[in-house]
Amino acid sequence: MANNLVIVESPSKAKTIEKYLGKDYKVLSSFGHIRDLPKKDMSVDIDNNFEPTYVVTSDKKKRVAELRKAMKSADLVWLASDSDREGEAIAWHLHKALKLTDKNSRRITFNEITKSAVESAIKNPREINQDLVDAQQARRVLDRVVGYELSPLLWRKVQPGLSAGRVQSVAVKLIVDRERKLDAFEPESSFRITANLAADDAKLEAKVNKDPKEQSVAKDLLDYSLNNALSISAIEQKPGKRNPSAPFTTSSLQQTASNTLGYSPKRTMMLAQRLYESGDITYMRTDSLSLSKQALAQATSVIKKQFGDDYHQFRTYKSKSKNSQEAHEAIRPTDLSKASAGADSPQKKLYDLIRVRTLASQMAPAKVKKTTITVPLKDDYELRAKGEVVTFEGWMKLAGKPDDVVLPSLSEGDELKLVSMEAEQRLSRGPARYTEASLVRQLEELEIGRPSTYAPTISTIQDRGYVEKGDIDGDETELTKLIVKDGAVIEETFAKMIGADRGKLLPTSVAIIVTDFLAKHFTKVMDYDFTAELENKFDKVAVGDIEWQKVLKDFYPHFHDSVEEAQNVSKKEASQARKIGNHPDSGKPVFARLGRYGPMLQHGDAEDDEKPEFAPLPDSTTIEKVTMQEALKAFELPRVVGKTEDGEEITANVGRYGPYVKVGKMFVSIGEDGDPHAINEKEARKFITEKKKELAKQLVQDFGDGLQIKDGRYGPYVTNGKVNAKIPKDKNPEKLTEDDAKQLIKDKKSGKNRRKKRSKK
Description:
4-stranded parallel sheet, alpha+beta, 9-stranded antiparallel sheet, Rossmann fold, 22 helices, single chain, about 35% helix, Topoisomerase I, domain 3, Topoisomerase I, domain 2, 31 strands
């Protein structure tokens, strides 16, 4: 019987570790945290030094009982959760919940799940690091206080169901601020001039060294090139080198995986977690750039064996952040000689990315020969042709080298013939919208959050409807192009989409309103520097420089005063109802505002005797941007489309779930791209017919008066049009009587089925 119980966070990690330990060790998983602040209330005693109340969460009570049972046959309990703050807190909570003592428990950590690392950890146990635990407590308690005081305020003043968080709200503000900069951006016009030149059989592509802003200057340059001899004034050749990137941190792994593999930060961390737990990579939550002596030695061996001595170069890297903390090594394979690892294709691709980056960081720089050929034009403009040839691949031998750009063999003074030339008008673009990868980079640069928080923060702001990953179609714009053709410079126009974006993070109307409300009334909480300052204080707690309660004491009084002051803000002011103008027919005001179910339009004032008219805000715009023309079109709905063959009226409208047509009590979706303003009677009838066919397939029995048995997405059920009751698996829906159906509805209303389920537990 095992006399040692090892507790880790995840079952896959337990499975890997159990392979390395003998029969005297039993390895079980806690499945993450077993204790936390309960969901039902704040559970922080502010007046008693911010004392938190922790409970074993309902989903972990059974697991705790199993761990206690396993403890009875063990002499020692080894707490082997991760080595960061979250892992230390898990160990501490286990110690408390299982009522362990220093006599019957040991704390062990390792940066990689390998046999040697696990055995070394067993030989070198340590005490629970209370400073790391307190740093985690400081973050958890502060975030709970912010969430529990801010969220109810948003429910009352802006919209029910909203949430706010210290880091998530600042991340949303970054995206809102970027969108506003784009809205205010005025594009500038310039002309990019390119030319194809030739000397005998040699061909050369060149570009003017700077883009003129005026069309007249661009035309002068084309005229000059057409009417004057062109010759090479200089050929400059110089060596260069390209160094490899540093090994991966959490942030750089998320960014690179997003840019090269298309993985979201959340997916990257999930895949990395699996690779770590299977023993293939080191711990994946780190902002350290260093590699262990063992890893450096193995990298040297692998590189020299595979590529030769010339391809190896020893390097050490230092983090730019003064607050580099947590794990003590960059993310790397545990065995660099292992060319492939992972249980599936996504894991294999991520492992390959990590392995290549790690090995490349210890390889020689790539050597290149750069060549620039200069052909002078008028004033200070000149044509330049640039080439680059890799003369020694270095780390690119592993990571892949770019295609060489080889320039023809020419000499200074050689005359060149103009083959073709054009000047294409371009409009400058404003600051780029954030992708998930660039948002991670920005959060890191501003020191908002830490490696473990980036992925969940970005997922949270999308899950809660503040941010959407979407596309912007842009506007078709007419631009000018000047071309050398048939011995003259001619002008042409061409159409180009300006402002289009794909897969970027876009703020919703709710995000803009909530951000403005928080920025106005909670300036400090929404300040980027203040948020970073809090992170620095957490870091100080982690090394024992300050007590965690002091962080709360410094923060809370000002924050709570702001909450109290914001209680006096009217709902109308908080929801930022924007007056678009007055309706041309009624003369009444038209507003764009946030309603209970999202952005909406309002025709008329709530104080008027006549009830205002409402319409959903079109998906193509926002509260800030909607025009009167768009609003008037929205108020055209619901629109009478025609009638069915039976003479029932068909209307078209837009609802919470998109555009639809309605006949009687039946709502029929016309698809995301359907236009309720344009759909005709024939098209509407087709949608309705298809919907009826679909419903007919679902209908099992019809007892009349709305009482039916249907076969739904999750199995057969009884409905009376208002209440749906699931049919038990031991009942045949085709043989149920009307009385049976009524009884199921009655049971559902009374909650009888729910009581039965609870009694089984």
